[in-house]
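Whether sequence alone determines local backbone shape is best considered at the level of individual chains. For completeness, the protein is quoted in full, as a sequence line and a line of structure tokens:
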Amino acid sequence: MFGLSDLVSLIISAFIILPVVILLRQMGYVLISEILGVENPRLTIGSGPRVFKWSIFDVRKYYHLYSWFSYDSLKKEGEFAYISLYAAPILINIVVAVTINLLIANEVITEYLTFFDRFIFYAFYYVLFDIVPMKTANGMPNNGWIIYEMIRYGKRTDYNEEPFIPSTTEVEEEYEEEMEKIEEIKEHKKEEAEQKSDTKQEEKRHKEAIESEKRKEKQELAEEKKEQERGKKE
């Protein structure tokens, strides 16, 4: 039976464990990039508008599961360099998960075992879908498929021409274009709101003018009536 404790565990898994495991996976790219020497590396965390950018870290407004690594070019190119790059996120998850598992087995970690068990589970979950060669629904290869092709053919041979790891320069250009579009939409909405406000104010003024005219007509009719009554008395 799904109870309150299960709901709490689900929330912790969805909003803490999964994002940390994904970030850890991306850190594999970051660490190996320091060894290989990549040009313009960046680790983007989250999505949407930028909150701040510091060094290689680009933190966005909307947090959850969405983080990725990008770079412009490798200083040290070659089959081994590319295999190392794509193997790094797999290896870092394996190393961290196995280390935590050993610490639990040797009773070094004795508290929050459920949390760490789930962390190990999700770490190996991503390892499985990274290491087994496969392609996604849009034909994009996973890390395992790229490593397999690098070992067998010395290059990526699939038909999908999209870069597996995006270019930081292109990502930044797309971000700026997206922000410009958002600003344009905001400005357009602001103009529409101002136009609606102007229209409402105009309608209000028109109604007030009509009401004022009606009151004026009533006063004139009342004065005429008084004049008539005075005339009859005289």
The first strand starts at residue 38 and ends at 39.
